[in-house]
Amino acid sequence: MVAALRAGDVSSVELTEEAIGRIERDDDGINAVCVRDFERARGAAREADAARARGEEGALLGIPMTVKESYDLAGLPTSWGMPEYRDHRPAEDAVQVSRLKAAGAVVLGKTNVPLGLQDIQSFNEIYGTTNNPWDHQRTSGGSSGGSAAALASGFGALSIGSDLAGSLRTPAHFCGIYAHKPTIGLVATRGMVAPPAAPLPVELDLAVAGPMARTARDLTLLLDVMVGPDPLTHGIAYDVTLPPARHERLSDFGVLVLEDHPLIPTGSAVRAGVNRVADALVDAGARVERHSPLLPDLTEAGTAYMQFLFSGSVARFPVDAYEQLQIQAAGLSADDQSLDAARLRAMVFSHRDWLELANRRELHRHGWRQLFAEFDAVVCPITPTPAFPHDHNPDVLERRLDIDGVGHPYFDQLVWAGLATMPGLPATAIPTGLSPEGLPVGVQLIGPMFEDRTPLRLAELLEQELGGFQAPGR
């Protein structure tokens, strides 16, 4: 699109009208774009065409795209799917929305999310359910499920989402598109905050903002617009220059491939996807290993991730609800080392407990540094299965994930996403093909901290090697 715009083969107005037409024609069945801003988009497209006529340039000048509902966009509602905030309209754009507009992007609207961004599906009382474009009876993922479904359907060329528990990577995996979870702290997140909190430049402990696209190369294009510290804090003193990718040719990469996790089985469809990537790497001459003593302990990593995730989730619970959790945690058997038990205990962590957990994280980060002195990337699942059928049981503890006919606790599937999230590593989600049922299957490429260009470049090379893989919307 950028090349066509620069050559004068198409206008931003034409691209924008085509995207709007797709949404108006097809989104009733998908329900991805929950807040439409078409008139302002048309105005931005006209401005982009005028700017180009004046000789101006911008990385995204004239490109139509969407943003996740959780980002503040002045004049539009930011509810995070919470009914009590359906009319909450921020007065200013999130820092990432500002960066998109400064780069010339045309924002078509906002995409659907789960209630409070706290699910692996995207549905809420305000905007309803977002369906998977490949099978409307299945979820598009969460919490950036609206963005992934929009991209898979051709509703704009790019989108931005966020990731705390795989919220960029899981929807990409479920919908057959690309996404990148940046290194923790690399991308400013001000203005992506649950209402009614003020949009302050806080440093998040696990969550990141990141790009989503239909091709691997477009992830880098969008990430380059997004990177950099908040101008209200660290940006006063410094800027960011990412190091180049470690290699330019697939044959030069050293890759560790993982398909098994001690805390949850890997379904056959996902296992096949991991092995498709491994075979492509081997065929291209890359060094591929299946085991390494340098890999941090996966059981400890998965447990620690759950403890971080759930200790933060209850921070603002009412006192009586918190006291009930304390009673339940005290009743656990000391022998119960399940993830359910780890999550419950973490909900009532003391500050002392949390500091000890944070120290364990630093030991894991050091372990990853040692591993990435030997390898350039790790290839592994994002979740154990392709997209699963909609499950809106309000008691999430009763939900079960079906892995090849056997039910497992719903939230246990997060351990693969947590492998990169807990230590703050970058991870790029790429599609690998379709399952026997015709559902997309993706994997993640985990890279060294602050070397985001390495997994991104690997993603580009694998896209070429696998022959490319396009989602339904064209």
Automatic annotation (TrEMBL):
InterPro entries: Amidase_CS, Amidase_dom, AS_sf, FAAH2. Residues 14-454 form the Amidase domain. This is Amidase. PANTHER family: FATTY-ACID AMIDE HYDROLASE, FATTY-ACID AMIDE HYDROLASE 2. SUPFAM superfamilies: Amidase signature (AS) enzymes.
